[in-house]
Amino acid sequence: MKNRLFAGTLALMLMQGALAAGAGTHYEMRVDGLACPYCAYGVEKKLKAIDGTSNIDVDLDNGIVSVDVADGQVLTEQQMRTLFSDAGFTFRSMKKTPE
Question: What backbone torsions phi and psi does residue 3 show, to the nearest 5 degrees?
């Protein structure tokens, strides 16, 4: 009985550690000029080139680009302003929230 209780507790601790390892930050950027799927593909490609990015979504209708980054990774406003400017778009703002 004690062995099962110990094994169950250990399993819960390991699962909690695995879930915490997936934590990171979610960013939403408002961008002007996104008009077509080709625009979205170009932005996705540039964001994927940044280490630790995942779950990239481009909402063409609302001009919102969402991306998750791994724990310890940071996207700066200047970095995003440059990325979008180089791609031919206008960066307006960025909101970040912990996952």
Answer: -65, -40
